[in-house]
Design a protein that fits this description.
Largest sheet: 7 strands, mixed
Radius of gyration: 16 Å
Order of helices and strands: HHEHEHEHEHEHEHE
Strand content: 15-25%
Low-confidence stretches: none
Number of helices: 8
Structural class: alpha/beta
Number of strands: 7
Shape: globular
Helix content: 25-40%
């Protein structure tokens, strides 16, 4: 799902370079230091308007959170969310997920979230799906050996595709199926909307094989 063009999006990003890191390749291997946290670092690939990141960051202030979003018109909304919440342990990267290996060292990330990505339903666009083998290989590289990968979608076709691509590369003990919600479940903006509309929400979670 795409957001409409946001007026002054580029200006919002430029005015908040303490949040949206310019030249992030310079900080490869230094993210914990830049975040100034002692706890684990989580990465959300396709962070949207930043609600999920900021809600987690405000609840777990000793942990670090990084949001990756390639669309300037979207990441500016995440900037506004960081400013609104006052979260100090969130950084944003206006980058394409194809660049992950240029941005992070091997084993630098503790947990990766892929929440409600574009399903790219056409076969010719399979490589763009964020659960395609090429992306899974990148996630595995930047995750710690015991790091957790978690994926959510309301798109059944993407979920079924992801079962075929993700489960074979996870260690035994992985989980998948319909999401079970509790009162304290932290959700994205889209997730809240989908859940309220009665859409089934699917997930896959596990640790990559070595």
């Amino acid at each position: 799902m795409r957001l409409r063009h946001v007026k002054n999006a580029s200006a919002i990003v430029e005015e908040n370079r303490n949040i949206v890191i310019e030249n992030p390749i310079l900080y490869k291997g230094k993210w914990k230091e830049l975040l100034n946290v002692n706890g684990p670092i989580s990465l959300e690939v396709g962070c949207g308007k930043g609600k999920f990141l900021c809600d987690n960051a405000m609840l777990y202030k000793n942990n670090g959170y990084i949001g990756l979003e390639m669309m300037t018109s979207v990441i500016c909304r995440a900037v506004q969310k960081v400013l609104e919440t006052g979260a100090k342990n969130v950084l944003l990267l206006n980058q394409d997920a194809n660049n992950l290996l240029d941005l992070f060292n091997e084993g630098e990330i503790d947990k990766i979230y892929v929440n409600f990505p574009d399903p790219w339903p056409k076969k010719r666009h399979e490589k763009r799906r964020l659960t395609s083998p090429s992306f899974l290989s990148k996630y595995k590289t930047i995750l710690k050996k015991d790091g957790v990968f978690r994926f959510k979608t309301d798109n059944l076709d993407l979920y079924n595709y992801s079962l075929e691509t993700v489960l074979p590369v996870l260690k035994d003990g992985y989980k998948y199926g319909l999401v079970e919600y509790s009162d304290d479940t932290i959700m994205t903006e889209f997730e809240t909307k989908f859940k309220n509309n009665g859409n089934p929400i699917y997930f896959i979670e596990g640790v990559f094989k070595e």
